[in-house]
Amino acid sequence: MNLKPFYEEFKTTLLIFGVIAWAIFLIIPMPGIIIDLCISASLAFSMIVLLTSSTIDSWDKLRTFPMILLMSTIFRIAFNIATTRKIISGGNPGSVIESAGHLIVQDEIIIGLVMFIILLIVQFIVANGASRFGEVSARFMLDALPGKQMSIDNELNQGAIDDQTAKKQKRRLQMQVDFYGSLDGAGKYIKGDVFASIAMIVVNLIVGLIVGMVELDLPFAEAANRFTLLTVGDGVVNLISALMITVSGAIVMAKVEEDNENGEAKSNNVIQRILQELIPNSRNLYIAGSVLIVLGITGLPFFQLAVPGALLIFAGYMLQRNKKAEEENKANEELRKRKTEQTTSKEVKVKRSVEPVVLEVGYKLAPYFMADSTDVFGNKKESIHDKTDLMRQIFANKLGIKIPAIKIRDNVSLHPSTKYVIKVKESAVASGVIKKDKILAIPTPLVISEIEGEKTKDPIFGQEAYWIDENQLDEAADKGYDVWSPITIIATHLHQIMEKNLYQFISLQQVADMVQEVGEEHPILKDKMDKIDDLYLLQKVIVSLLKEKVSIKDLPTIIESFIEAYNQTKDIDTIVSFVRQRISRQICENYINNDGKLYLISLKDEEELVVNSHNGVNVLSMNYDWQVKFLERLKKEKDNARTLKIEPVIVTQRPELRPAISRMMENFDTDTPVISIYELPSNVKNKVIASI
User: Fold this and answer.
1) Where are the domains of the chain?
2) SS3 track for 237-264
């Protein structure tokens, strides 16, 4: 007979009935046969819960356990009330309770009561211990939550796990906290159940005696015998069920979860773990068995000690034989594997991609990369991961580009061990050395006196600086120095390198994704780009903009102006110039000084400067000496401007000269913006402060 269709149709109704069934026990007197059936069901349910809790691998295999504890406790209390009503009313509480009473009491009321009290004490001890387990587990789990969450974030930042895995681990962590919190609350119900049982026992005994002697006209001895027997029987059947549930709770709370190499819960079967850890080898069994046999020889009962001892020795022999067989099988398997590897060619896998950005650090710098590290400024729980995440967000907000996660890994081969190396696409582009437990003091124009420290060059800009002790922080600040912690040094260096190399992260696929995103809100631009079908040229335009740190946030305008220019020319510098003019307001906004003006350095004799074009790229055809002298004069004028606290930009009259001058700056690693006169917004005040 297939009951599945019936269950599927009425399972909700059955569940609702089961939830409210406890209220029926409080209202309606139950006949003895129903009480017997309920006792049998309660014992069976308790055994199932105990066996399940003993064999589950981890807490998430029995997530409903707190609810099971709560509901079973409520049902048991309600059932206790029903049996108490039946006993003190002089009715028949069922044959199970009466038989249990006869089994425990056996015509000896005092002995029966003592046995029952012992069971009650055991139940109280286990319930109290389980409750304490729940409190400690919930508290420790809650205290460890921030550290575990940061550990997951660190693994995500380092590229050890992906976003989906991180979300899954965080969700499981939160569920674990909720589980142990609920278990702690349910444990209080278990303790309350013990006190309720004691109260009902006292009621059964005292009120039962009164009812038996007053209403039933029974002699004191007969009334005491009858109601003690029923009270003990009722208490025992309920205590056995409650004890199994309580032990189940203690087992679940006492589990120590371990993770395997994949971060998943290991098998945590209580019975298996006890056997594995308590009997790791046969030697312990041999010793225990031998001791029992020796004790039997010394005058203690020989048979009762020798038989268990012999069984332990036999179990040790079997364990030793099985381990030896396992080792032989493992050795044979290894031998077969080696033979297979020798006779078959192993497939060689080639990695077709490289890490976009990698920060390698010496092993002595590891403490600075812990999630809970602190710097000398007292910024607790700040790490390099926090700063790199913030840096990526700044680039996204300022320049409109999503840069990949920065992978951080230690490199024991770095010398000295406090060195760090920044790699872009697995090519080293910058490095530096940190002094452990030191901070870097960098002089500013406001320095009033020299500070005592180890002279050095800062690893980012190559300026003169000093390594000083952490306790000199306030002194350095008072004397006008900029003070950087090791984390700030590395993060600033990373920011500088990333800003210079942003264009390297613009792949053809990323450009296609950008066009797709723009097309969702501007479908006509997507249609036009599909007709042009020249993502490669658009990629060159975006790369040219990013090389000069021009934001591509206004991508719809960039794509629109690219399409317009593309219909007139395929010359890359001409297209870039056209795009720059369309977004000139955004470009110049970054160069405006605090007084709202744009300060310019113009070029003398522009008409004498020769520009050659090769494949649409404009290059300045001036000799090396001229370029060096030009840069020297430029540096002098910029230094003069900085004394006035202004940052000038170079302006060209000829549009084709602008990219040529900019490429010369790039070749000499000079960070000075170059704009065309056609890119100057009409509403921005500008002033020429020098001409070179």
Assistant:
1) 28-257, 280-330, 357-502, 506-588, 591-691
2) HHHHHHHHHHHHHHHHHHCCCCECCCCC
DSSP assignment, residue 517? H
Report which secondary-structure segment, H or E, holds 454: strand 454-457
- Helix, strand, coil content of the chain in percent (nearest 5): 65, 10, 25
Fold of 506-588: Helicase, Ruva Protein; domain 3 (1.10.8)
Task: Determine which helix (DSSP H) or strand (DSSP E) holds 523, and give its type and residue range.
Answer: helix 523-532
Q: What is the Cα–Cα distance from 653 to 391, expressed in whole angstroms? A: 36
Q: Which helix (H) or strand (E) holds 433?
A: strand 427-433
Q: Give the residue from 664, 553, 573, 668 showing the smallest Cα distance to 613.
A: 573
Does the pLDDT at position 687 exceed 60? yes
Determine what percent of the chain is predicted with pLDDT higher than 90: 15
Question: What digits encode the pLDDT tens for the residues 552-586?
Answer: 999 999 999 999 999 898 889 999 999 999 999 99
Pairing relationship of beta strands 649-652 and 597-602 according to DSSP bridges: parallel
The rounded distance, in Å, linking the Cα atoms of 641 and 646 is 5
d(CA 493, CA 487): 10
pTM of the complete model: 0.51
Q: Are 195 and 76 in contact (CB under 8 A)?
A: no
Cα distances (Å, whole numbers) of residue 360 to 408, 485, 500: 6, 18, 19
Q: What fold, for 357-502? A: Glutaredoxin (3.40.30)
Question: How far apart are the C-alpha atoms of 319 and 313, rounded to whole Å?
Answer: 10
* Joined tokens for residue 624: 């090396």
pLDDT score of 245 more than 70? yes
Cis bond upstream, residue 416 (ω within 30): yes
- With respect to CATH, is domain 591-691 assigned 3.40.50.12790? yes
